[in-house]
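>> received
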Amino acid sequence: MQKGSNLPYYLMLFWATVIWGGTFTAVKYVVMDFPPLVGASLRFIITFLFLFPILLKREGIKALPSRYDLPSLTLMGLTGIFLYNMFFFYGMKTAAATDGALVVALSPVVTALLSTLLLKERFNLRQAVGFLLCFTGVSTIIAKGSWVVITTWAVNKGELLLFGCATSFAVYSVAGKWAMARVSPMTSTTFATGLGALMLTLVALPDYAQASLTQISLPAVLGLLYLAILGSGVAFLFWFFGVNRLGAGKASAFYNFVPVWSAVIAIIALGDYFEKHPKTYLHQKFF
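>> returned
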């Protein structure tokens, strides 16, 4: 039986969602100065260098995966790091931060569908209703409250790319369940991050050669460090400790606050969206 108060663990989950909400604003600063692939590559190189020493300190040499673990870890790196961030960085060049968070919030629903198909997990009526509500809400976001936008295909292409985030994160989650049958959650996340960073860097090499990294602004650098250290490092550790103590069921409820914090932070930092489309935004938040 676990002793002591659970309050610190609830606070960790709370702050993880606040940090993740801020990533949608931080990336807007990053893509102003960094080519998307370079920004994504640097983000996860820094994150891996941050997580790997912590992993070794916590779990020691036994944390190193074997060659039998590489297929599932590679799939995690391909989907959750490489593809997710390709969609994320390119999508957020044109999508509003608030819209981006709401579209990506479709991830848990897509994960549930894939888990039903691939892991034979049960998909109940409550999940089906949730899926319909999420799909309706995201459609409203993309249509900006007007179906004429969809019928004339006048949609924001960045928001369509963010659908790729939801799908790739869902595959990442399923692959993670396979990986964590053999290794710890922290091991799987750390090495998936490293493998994904390698993939991003290989693809980004031509952009590295052309990028003028000496002319990067301070907000872009701070945004990159926020994404790497806080968004992919500290928030993950908070989430990891919270899930371990409280269980995945209770922890998952906190994820629903990410779009809320994204909206609050984007409005404060960017004056984003709500001021321009208040009625449409409230409609989106309802769904």
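>> The CA atoms of residues 115 and 121 lie 6 Å apart.
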